[in-house]
Design a protein that fits this description.
alpha+beta, Histidine-containing Protein, Chain: A
């Protein structure tokens, strides 16, 4: 198991569109990827609604746990997605 932390950098937090991007990135991975919110709620990031339900806002830190093959590489990719400044049109 690999555990990393990430700080949400998107100005509007992890809402529907970022959640969709994060969940899609996790779809092809055969291991387990979980994220734990500052409120100690843990969800599987493949489920968009679970990810949205965390209510993650800009500046919050989450813990990401990856279990399976290539844990380090997958964890780094997921951290990068949580720390991305998504620039969606208003």
């Amino acid at each position: 198991m690999t555990e990393r932390t990430a700080t949400v950098c998107n100005a509007y937090g992890i809402h529907v569109r970022p959640s969709s991007i994060i969940a899609k990135a996790a779809q092809g991975y055969d291991g387990l990827i979980e994220v734990t919110s500052p409120k100690a709620v843990t969800v599987n990031i493949r489920n968009i609604l679970s990810l949205i339900s965390l209510g993650l806002t800009s500046g919050q830190t989450v813990t990401i746990r990856v279990t399976g093959t290539d844990e380090e590489a997958i964890a780094a990719q997921i951290v990068e997605l949580f720390e991305t400044h998504y620039d969606f049109p208003r």
